[in-house]
Specification:
- This is Flavodoxin.
- Keywords: Signal.
- One of its GO terms (molecular function) is FMN binding.
- Pfam families: Flavodoxin_4.
- This protein is α/β, with parallel strands linked by helices and about 190 residues long.
- The protein has a single domain, classed as 3-Layer(aba) Sandwich (Rossmann fold).
- Helix 2 crosses helix 6.
- The radius of gyration is 18 Å and the shape is globular.
- About 35% of the residues are buried.
């Protein structure tokens, strides 16, 4: 009787659209969700990906933090882009070889990815891995964010990236879920 009641509760929750647990993965591949986020929008998308895939999280942080003030931060980011800089990172993924699928998230800064993303990508041998970008923006859209990303992943396999406006990031779980299902990474 108790088992039947629990089954009915689970069915009711599922019917009402409540998420009982993380989606089951379509693969047995180990997933890493790495992200760089200034305002928290990219982190919100990373959280959705983590909860849906069961992957591990890694925050990409620069050794020398960016200015808190928005305009000052954008000026530093613009100068880094102009100089094709590779800012030093605070930490490193110690066990990168154990991951099969690596999501890399970032905001659109000056029409492309922030330079710390290039530092991250160039710090590892990604050959043979599936490396998938996701990007948030404040109105600039995709621009060169995905095209430039693919140029820096070596012989890794790339999949279709996910793009969303920063203001929608925290409520984007349904869109992220649909994207992951389309990539056949979850069922």
């Amino acid at each position: 009787m108790r088992t039947r009641i629990i089954s009915l509760i689970v069915i009711a929750m599922t019917t009402l659209g409540m998420n009982v647990q993380a989606q089951s993965s379509s693969t047995d591949k180990k997933v890493l969700v790495a992200y760089f986020s200034r305002s928290g929008n990219t982190r919100a998308v990373a959280d959705h990906i983590k909860s849906l895939t069961g992957g591990d999280m890694f925050e990409i942080q620069v050794a020398k933090p960016y200015p808190e003030e928005y305009h000052a931060c954008t000026e530093v980011a613009k100068k880094e882009k102009e100089d094709n800089a590779r800012p030093a990172l605070k930490t490193k993924v110690e066990n990168m070889t154990s991951y099969d699928v690596i999501f890399v998230g970032y905001p659109n800064w000056w029409g492309t990815m922030p330079m710390p993303i290039l530092t991250f990508l160039e710090s590892y041998d990604l050959n043979g891995k599936v490396v998938i970008p996701f990007c948030t923006h404040g109105g600039g859209g995709e621009q060169n964010c995905f095209k430039d990303f693919v140029k820096h992943i070596g012989k890794a396999d790339s999949k279709q990236g996910f793009l969303i406006g920063g203001g929608q990031a925290s409520s984007a779980r349904p869109q992220v879920e649909s994207w992951l299902k389309g990539l056949k990474l979850i069922q």
